[in-house]
Amino acid sequence: MAKIVMFLTTDSTNVSEGSSALIAKSEEELQNLTNLMEKILDCAAHKLKDGLYMLVDRH
Question: InterPro entries recorded for this chain (predicted)?
Fold first, then answer.
């Protein structure tokens, strides 16, 4: 079963309190962080909407 590792967003109101999240300052920084964390954590990144990605571990 897949597990949510973290959220990455440009707007902190996109994630609930207590969730693991990285907040980017711009859309460009968000995309760079998402790609980097996807590789480092060996996870799959999914775009939920503009400015919000979710990293999922499928192992």
Answer: YpzH
Domain containing residue 7: 3-15+25-57
Tokens of 41: 């954590």
In a domain, 20, yes or no: no
What amino acid is encoded at 2 in this protein?
A: A
Number of helices (H) and strands (E), helices first, in the chain? 1, 4
Q: Structurally, how many domains does the chain consist of?
A: 1
Tens place of pLDDT per residue across the chain (59 aa): 889 999 999 999 999 988 999 999 999 999 999 999 999 999 999 999 999 999 999 87
